[in-house]
Amino acid sequence: MNPSSGQDDQRPRLHFTPPGNWMNDPNGLVFCEGEYHLFYQHHPFDLQWGPMHWGHAVSRDLIHWEHLPIALAPDEHGTIFSGCAVVDENDTSGFFGGGKGLVAVFTQHAERPQTREPLQRQSIAYSKDNGRTWTKYAGNPVLGDESVLDFRDPKAIWHEAAAKWVMVVSAGDRVRFYTSPDLKEWTFASDFGAGEGSHAGVWECPDLFELPVDGGAAGRKWVLMVSVGGDPDDPAGSGTQYFVGSFDGTAFVNDHPSDTVLWMDRGRDNYAGATWSNIPREDGRRLFIGWMVNLKYAGVTPATVWRGAMTLPRELTLADTAEGPRIVQQPVAEVERLREEIGRWSDTVLRSGAEWTGDASGNALEAVAEFEPDTAAEVGIRFGTAPGEETIVGYDARRGELFIDRTCSGRTDFHELFPCRHAAPLDPAERRLRLWIFVDRSSVEVFAGDGRLVMTDLIFPSGPNRSVALYSLGGDAKLSSLTLYRLA
Ligand code: FRU
């Protein structure tokens, strides 16, 4: 990064970034009175992680964000770690004089005086003016347990059938469920996770929601998402796993054997994601956003003005498969409003070793492509940003894997694990190869098979997109269709 020019011209055009300084997890995702709120872990005075505050922005379309003043700042109970926000419709908390308002539920992080180990407890705050100003509850913290060091990231939901609030919160190698009538008094209900799924790192940022399977044709299931800090020896680093099962307001029961591991995203850079609460029934979408980074290098990505970006907001659905229901992700439909078509191509043969190249300038591009790999060993799209600088999204037909290659994508020297080509298996049923790709100034997101396999990666090119090139290796392939858009 050239410090004299600052980093502002490198800002993603579609992806949320903080006005300045450090950002990590999305927090307090809630929809209220026509606005989507996005709070986030924020160090307002430094490009590095430090005393955490909640930054704040609002949007009416999930694309254009208005930055608002810091919502929550550290106090005598500690700094403000991750958490959620809910609309207390019926004033169960008593904060709103019989009306409704927003309640944030979050972790406060402090140090134990003797050992200097973390002391993490849950607190609440309320807002009567749609999130513009917040009052911390005088009875904070509302939930503590000094027997666990990592006790954080509460997600509270109103459980209709049980008619009470449920909180899921991470507690070391598991999550715990608590229930409450009023968001103030919490009673332990159960725990889940010891020996289940991936334990490659600390469990953080749980989320819990119910979704119809195949639009309701195959019933409904509960999803429990948990971010996993990552195995120090595994180059894949941090990621977000999910469990599918049932939840009765008290206990989560996993549908799968405990050694099944399901990942939300098979790219390197999607962590600590969460979903919006209180989306109106007539909309009904389950909307997700993640912090676009890997813990392996979160503190050393090129930055002079701001550090940290979110994924595109995505809609989550559950699709029935032979192995059971699986999460499908798609960018929210609102993104389509930004499309300016660059061109459309169909039924083109890609000769082995040759390239089909087109101009495609723009800070943010969307490509919708369908290939038939035929005899090719590899097919792919190169997104060129400067001579010799490109990011490749491709398919290795011999291994049946989708890959992103960011080896020559621009700045990669800030961490040894950053320059890489990495891959994930594509369901054989998806081998007609439908790719939906978003390339912004510092990221690439690939939704394959309509979003059944997703890969999200950061990139740091020296400039905006300039060209696309389609190629085939080791045999001919067919490009059934390609539509390219500039997103403006
Ligand atoms: C995840 C996380 C959370 C914590 C927050 C602190 O990235 O470690 O578990 O609440 O970040 O900033």
UniProtKB/TrEMBL annotation:
PROSITE patterns: GLYCOSYL_HYDROL_F32. Residues 1-20 are annotated as: Disordered. Residues 15-331 form the Glycosyl hydrolase family 32 N-terminal domain. The keyword Hydrolase applies. It comes from the Bacteria. It holds the Pfam family Glyco_hydro_32N. Residues 334-485 form the Glycosyl hydrolase family 32 C-terminal domain. One of its GO terms (molecular function) is sucrose alpha-glucosidase activity. Gene3D superfamilies: Exo-inulinase, domain 1, Glycosyl hydrolase domain, family 43. GO terms for cellular component: cytoplasm. Keywords: Glycosidase, Hydrolase. The keyword Hydrolase applies. GO terms for biological process: sucrose catabolic process. Belongs to the glycosyl hydrolase 32 family. This is Glycoside hydrolase family 32 protein. The lineage of its organism: Bacteria, Bacillati, Bacillota, Bacilli, Bacillales.
